Amino acid sequence: MQIAVVTGASSGIGREFALRIDEKCSLDEIWLIARREKNLKNTAKTMRTKARILPLDLATQDSLIALRRLFEKEKPVVKILINAAGFGKFGSVQSQTPETIEEMIAVNIRALTSVTRMVLPYMGDGGGIVNLSSVSGFLPLSYLAVYAASKAYVLRFSQALAEEVRERNIRVTAVCPYWVASEFIPVAQETDDGDSINQFRFITVPYRVVKKSGRDHEKGKTLSLPGFVPKAIFCLTRILPEACQRAIWAKTRKISRS
Ligand SMILES: NC(=O)c1ccc[n+]([C@@H]2O[C@H](COP(=O)([O-])OP(=O)(O)OC[C@H]3O[C@@H](n4cnc5c(N)ncnc54)[C@H](OP(=O)(O)O)[C@@H]3O)[C@@H](O)[C@H]2O)c1
In angstroms, rounded to a whole number, what is the distance separating the alpha carbons of residues 191 and 153? Predict the structure, then answer.
């Protein structure tokens, strides 16, 4: 059985990736993972490929164990894995509850790493892994510190893994978008101290991100910068001193809060 696995398939970028895979690939099943079963069913309704609905909370160890057991039982051939599940919260580290911070780390880092590790033995020659990082992974972002650091992890993890699995002919791509219009933003704005960002200039849509990063992945690129803004930020973070990057973000954040 040849399958694709998509985490975060209930909305936004993950949902858009599931639809793109459905359109482009001939597979036996696409496994759709997120917490909201109803949304996953809605994604499945618009697909021609058979979908397996897996309503799992990836922040929990039980869900990761359940998923591992499913792989052991079904022994599928995974053609592509999309790790899109993730979330962020605006606000200072001190204002965020320990639970919020732990959940962010659990979903953005632990689950992404565990699901990738789980899938690797089932991935054959020509397989692919797409991990959703972010431009926030390029620089230290105050008042988005844990999220940005988690995306730096995703970026470095993906780049290192790409090297390890190259000889198995498996492609790994870290996708680094700027703001994308999805449920990510209202989720991030629900802060513990009400200190949020409210302006999102140069925002793009999931369709554009998925179209560009899907192409980059097919070309074998390890890093996908979907759009002009991610490219510009990437270049600036290569040349500007870190103190300067922090100052620019502080100014941008101040303007974006009004
Ligand atoms: N939107 C942006 O501005 C932006 C920019 C750069 C990078 N990204 C990254 O892109 C990825 C996709 O984000 P998006 O923009 O598509 O946001 P989104 O629409 O909010 O999608 C996030 C997905 O993650 C799932 N998820 C969250 N917590 C989960 C949990 N505990 N267990 C299982 N699934 C969980 C959500 O499903 P349920 O709620 O149903 O569980 C949802 O399907 C994320 O990793 C995000 O960090 C987003």
Answer: 23
Question: Mapping DSSP to helix (H, G, I), strand (E, B) and coil, where does residue 124 land?
Answer: strand
Domains by residue range for the chain, with CATH: 2-257 (3.40.50.720)
pTM attached to this predicted model: 0.97
- Cα 84 to ligand 1 centroid, rounded to whole Å: 6
- E-strand ranges in the chain read 2-7, 29-34, 50-55, 77-83, 123-132, 171-175, 223-224
Q: What is the pLDDT of residues 68-77, one digit of tens each?
A: 999 999 999 9
CA 198 to chain centre: 22
Q: What is the pLDDT of residues 109-147, one digit of tens each?
A: 999 999 999 999 999 899 999 999 999 999 999 999 999
Q: Which of 136, 180, 201 to mutate to test the pocket of ligand 1 (most atoms within 8 A of CB)?
A: 180
